[in-house]
Amino acid sequence: MIIPILSSIIPVYRALDQQLNESLDSSRSKASGTQIKVTDSSTQNLGTYFIVGSISVLYGAGIYYLLPYSLLSANLSLLLYVFFFILLGMILGLVLLAFNFQKIFEVCLTYLLFFWERKSMKLLIMKNLDLHRQKNKMTAIIYSLTLGTIIFILVTLNLQIQQLTVITGMEGVDISVEHYKGISA
User: Fold this and answer.
1) Residues 6+ apart with CB under 8 A from 183
2) What is the rounded distance in angstroms from the CA atom of residue 64 to the CA atom of residue 66?
3) Rounded-to-integer distance, Cα 49 and Cα 178, Å
4) pLDDT, tens digit, 9 for 90 and up, residues 97-137
5) DSSP label at 182?
6) CA-based torsion, 74, 177, 168, 85: positive or negative
7) Cβ of 82: how many Cβ atoms within 10 Å?
8) What contacts 24+ positions apart, CB below 8 Å, involve 71-75?
9) Residue 55 has what pLDDT?
């Protein structure tokens, strides 16, 4: 019940920002063919770049420091946390890479999947994809992050299940918990 309420907030705000006749008109398309954005470099907000850069530096420095530290101190839980954050960073990086190559993927898939269509139909499909590019980008990001997270959770769950079946396969033991303190030489 909470998710539908939260997902309806942005469309309600968009409808309230417009005039009444524009909000109620459902026959016209809301997407415009061209967008022009003029920015002044002297008034550009650099706060977002600073925040993203700081988070990236902290992420890299944390891995650069914590990975060798966890290996030298034989702290397995810290090592697994570092690997977990490395994998999350890889998922995010692959999503951003796919985000940057979205136009190329759209063109390739259009020509691959519609090879039998006339050139005019392919051109119409490409123009439609160009018109809805901003919506498609957000949908692709959400879909990629969700799919990557679900696959990551399923792989982790399967590894846990395999580990438990190996442990329970020992004779006379239901579950065995072992703790190693450090590396013995």
Assistant:
1) 74
2) 6
3) 46
4) 888 888 888 888 888 988 888 888 888 888 888 887 777 78
5) S
6) negative
7) 20
8) 73/182, 74/180, 74/181, 74/182, 74/183
9) 92
Contact call for residues 86 and 63 (beta carbons, < 8 A): yes
DSSP label of 18:
S
CA angle, residues 6, 11, 13, in degrees to nearest 5: 95
What angle do helix axes 76-100 and 47-72 make, rounded to 10 degrees? Answer: 140
- Going by the DSSP 8-state scheme, the letter that residue 74 receives in this structure is T
CA-closest candidate to residue 97, choices 48, 150, 140: 140
| Spatial CB neighbours of 106, under 8 Å, sequence gap ≥ 6 | 126, 129, 136
Single pTM value for the model: 0.56
Q: Per-residue pLDDT tens for 136-176?
A: 788 888 888 888 888 888 888 888 888 777 766 666 666 66
Question: Is residue 151 within 8 Å of 91, Cβ to Cβ?
Answer: no
The whole-angstrom separation of Cα 141 and Cα 128 is: 19
Per the model's pLDDT, the better-predicted residue between 173 and 73 turns out to be 73
Q: Pick from 90, 100, 86, 91: which is nearest to 145 by CA? A: 91
Contact (Cβ atoms closer than 8 angstroms) between residue 121 and residue 114: yes
Give the pair of three-digit tokens for residue 158.
């399967």
The separation between the first and the last C-alpha atoms of the chain, rounded to the nearest angstrom, is: 58
Element (H, E) at 39: none
